[in-house]
Amino acid sequence: MAVNIKKSRDIHSLSPFMNIVFNVIAAMFSLVCVFPFAFVVILSFTDEKSLAQHGYRLIPEKWSTYAYEYMFQNGAQLLQSYGVTITVTIVGTLLSVMIIALYAYGISRSSFKYRGFFSFLALFTMLFNGGLVPTFIVVTQVLHLKDTIWALILPMMMNAFNIMIMRTFFKSLPDGIIESAKIDGASEFQIFRKVVLPLSLPGLATIGLFCTLAYWNDWFNALLYIDNPNLVPLQSMLMRIESSMSFILQNSNMSGLGSLAASLPQETSRMAMVVLATGPIVLAYPFFQRFFIQGLTVGSLKE
């Protein structure tokens, strides 16, 4: 028996040389993934004239923070937009994950009488929707959400694709865990809260990451429903800055705009926008990533 175990370990173990090779390959692949963002950060700190003369370089001829200084000319408004985006992302993600998990758990249970109807209801919205005009009318005239922060949260709170992901995840959980909880006298909600949710952290982290990215990158709802400058999210604010720069550059032949257009950091400001828009959301990945590597039911059932 011991000999068989040793042979099995020898078969599945890697030699030191192959271990080094695979580590080098993984490191190179990671570098390829990280390099574009790192290069954008470097370009955002490059002097605009140096960039125009020498092109894109890994080590700029001249460093400059003028792109960020230009972006933070309206520093109070930019920080306000950051606050709105962070609030919308946190509140929207928490509400979305909670409601999607409840909905998906209901339609994943074979004992739920109407699971076929509600499954069809979710799938139908993946194929058809009411359209932009009816949605705008419902949000503004029926729900009266225009110029409120809920106009940035509620329209994106339910997502049929995330519901299907969680339903599949819940159905993959062993029935023995749920049956044993029922034998112990737990109610359906207690089973969901104390048994199912702790085992579903990888699935919840997955849809949580999807919801976080969706809320953070959303600008379209602000374009439709937000006129109050105090409620403009970050992405919409950056788009307005980009539109203002494009207008100045396209009309630089007008009196008074020529000198202003010449002083604008055209390329470096775009790189700074990318850094400002994507930098904070990168911090969310380590939080979600640590749940992906966990086993679903390690140690849950023992024979």
Beta fraction of the residues?
under 5%
Total helical elements:
16
Number of domains: 2
What is the CA-atom radius of gyration, in angstroms? 26 Å
C-alpha end-to-end distance: 21 Å
Shape: flat
**SSE order in H/E notation?**
HHHHHHHHHHHHHHHH
Give the averaged pLDDT, no decimals: 82
Task: Note the main sheet.
Answer: none
CATH C-level category of the largest domain: Mainly Alpha
Kindly report the CATH topology of the largest domain. Answer: MetI-like fold
Based on helices, strands and strand pairing, what is the structural class? Answer: mainly alpha
Uncertain parts: 5-11, 295-303
The CATH architecture designation of the largest domain is Orthogonal Bundle
**Strand count:** 0
CATH homologous superfamily placement of the largest domain: MetI-like
Could you please describe the fold and organization of this structure?
There is one protein chain. With 303 residues, this protein is an all-alpha fold. It has 16 helices and no strands. The protein has 2 domains: 2-44; 76-292, MetI-like (MetI-like fold).
